[in-house]
Amino acid sequence: MKQPDGLYIVLISVHGLIRGHELELGRDADTGGQTKYVIELARALAENPQVSRVDLLTRRVIDPKIDRDYGESIERLSSRAQIIRLSCGPRRYLRKEVLWPYLGSFADYALQHIRRVGRLPDVIHSHYADAGYVGLRLSGLLGIPLVHTGHSLGRVKHQRLLEGGTSEENIEARYNINQRIEAEEQALGAAALVVASTQQEVDEQYALYDNYQPKRMVVIPPGTDLERFHPPSRFWRNPPIEREISRFLSYPRKPMILALSRPDARKNITTLIRAYGENPALRQKANLAVVAGNRDDISTMEKGPRTVLKEILLLIDRYDLYGSIAYPKHHDISDVPDLYRLAAQSKGIFINPALTEPFGLTLIEAAASGLPVVATHDGGPREILEYCKNGELIDPLDADRMGEVLFEALSDRSRWQRWAKNGLKGAHQHYSWPGHVTKYLREVSKVIRKAKKPRLQTKKKSRLPVSEKVLVCDIDNTLTGDREGLRSLFKKLKEAGTEIGFGIATGRNFTSTLKVLKEWEIPLPDLLITGVGSQIFYGPNLVEDQSWQQHIRYRWKREAILEAMADIPNLRFQPRSEQLPYKISYYVDAKKGIDIPAITRHLRRLDLSANIIYSHQAYLDLLPVRASKGSAVRFFCNKWGIPLEHLLVVGDSGSDEEMLTGNTLGAVVGNYSPELEYLHEDPSIYFAKEHHAWGILEALEHYNFFEQERIVAVQKEAI
């Protein structure tokens, strides 16, 4: 069947509440600017004639506390763009920091969606660290380019929290910051293109990362919906939100200082209120409107926003600001453009006093509405004001100066008019969505041209006698170790006939594997993965999969890695027979050990990408970033049309970790290596009591794998 003309682009944004209408911006820390960005990007891309399809993949949420919209599997944004919601852990709504254990499963569901589409995307674009983790897996499995946008970077957040006095332990406990930073490092290492909003983000924020490669980064500022954000016309009638604001104010016709953000400590709303409350002239000159998300009962909110809102109310009372400040409990997304227009009509000003601001989309919206701005001198606002010349930057920690700048901005009418005019011109010239998409597609097309686009593999089984379900096992200490157990296992497999296929995934090389199979009288498998996932062979003639070799060569610089590893202590090169074109292997001095994070940082700083696998506390293997046992079994399933839920994988060491997690049926034999101990926390992985082949038999029984009547699957999501 002929594929449609035009690009197929997959966007991934896992966390938050994402829908195409009435976005609940400010509801919590996860439903903010990124949510709006990906929705508007999807729509804008779909309007471009170069694009035939856009799928925005996000998390499906079924929770009585939120709208039922977020439980819908598919939501149309336009004729060529849609939101696809996939399972990811528990059905209930979760904050992004606790989603990490479920992202492997999300990636597997995403792969299934792409197979249902029947067409490989031309590019995958991940948004934020969690989506980067998913995008990295999909890009690797499918062999297509990854584009990444960080939005808010973990290393920057980590620095700010430490500077603010939060302890390292509390940061890790609350934000899982190390996992987030590692996911960002991996995404940056594998991404063919990183899209940033500002040059400051490239030069200062991404520069904090080991995988900082500015040559692969491009600055494309987000667009703004200029149909929604525009100045008030002469015949514009004041909207309903005006009544909600005016009921707080004694003199509602005064100029309005507008602040619009989530109730987050980083947004620095309390310093703004101090600046206003301690400046009598400013209080006399203007009203202050603080629109800080939506709330029903502050006492029922999460600790962060609850603390901020309580402090706001205490400051209002301390400075006796009643009648001068509006702080509405509710507003809709449709009210936001009207809020800017109300402030512009009153000859007021918009302020963003955030401690840190990666971009500052509200500043663009204000500019497009003819409303001058005062903004933090951190991050994106510097570039926005450089382009638009529509306001002034301030130190967000200097409350006195903040108040003075606001008073001066409101007192100079001719400068106010100049700023309003400049902002309109700048927003249209630099921050429109059509302009954003034009530059985006130009950069993405370069990436696509460099990549060899693979063809979607068919489900045809060809010569390989693949059954509907497949058992895949490690060899050493999993299959081997007990001859009686091994004989019992293969007796069961023989009785199952063609119902159950048999595969092996091992760290051994091809020759060594055949030798141990002969020694232990193990039949040739239907699937053989050797070299820790660097080679794939299919039975019965064990023909090597050349497409896998082409797939994993991405960013592999073998000689440079060998040179970089030459001076690493406590390592000894394994024999030449263990070295492969896509595998470098060492013995580790068990007494002295090795610092894996230090090796990872060392390679990243040299712009060398490798998958580092440490197993049995004795072996170190370096492979291409796309190569591993887990990636190999998924490549096999994708190629032969085997659902991951029909694959039972059994292992015993760290090299088996990736194939045990996700949507495969995972099992660990009783004699496992200590590096798998932490997987006890994953309830979807079965830990057998029996050792060696007896443990495999126990896992087969646990999963009812020989049952003929129904397809066996384990849903890896909590109810």
Q: How much of the polypeptide forms β-strand, as a percent range? A: 15-25%
What is the residue-averaged pLDDT? 91
* Portion in helices: 25-40%
CATH fold-type name of the largest domain: Rossmann fold
CATH fourth-tier homologous superfamily of the largest domain: Glycogen Phosphorylase B
Total DSSP E strands: 26
In this structure, how is the largest beta sheet organized?
8 strands, mixed
Cα shape:
elongated
Number of domains: 4
Question: What does the model show?
Answer:
The protein is α/β, with parallel strands linked by helices and 719 residues long. The chain folds into four domains: 213 residues, 3-Layer(aba) Sandwich (Rossmann fold), CATH 3.40.50; 187 residues, 3-Layer(aba) Sandwich (Rossmann fold), CATH 3.40.50; 175 residues, Rossmann fold (3-Layer(aba) Sandwich), CATH 3.40.50; 70 residues, Hypothetical Protein Ta0175, Chain: A, domain 2. 39% of the residues lie in helices and 16% in strands. The chain contains 26 helices and 26 strands. The protein has an eight-stranded mixed sheet with strand order 3-4-2-1-5-6-7-8, with helices on both faces. The chain has an eight-stranded mixed sheet with strand order 19-18-17-16-15-24-25-26, sandwiched between helices. Strands 11-10-9-12-13-14 form a six-stranded parallel sheet, with helices on both faces. A hairpin with a 3-residue loop joins β22 and β23. α3 crosses α6 and α19 runs parallel beside α26. The two termini are 40 Å apart. 48% of the residues are buried. The C terminus is likely disordered.
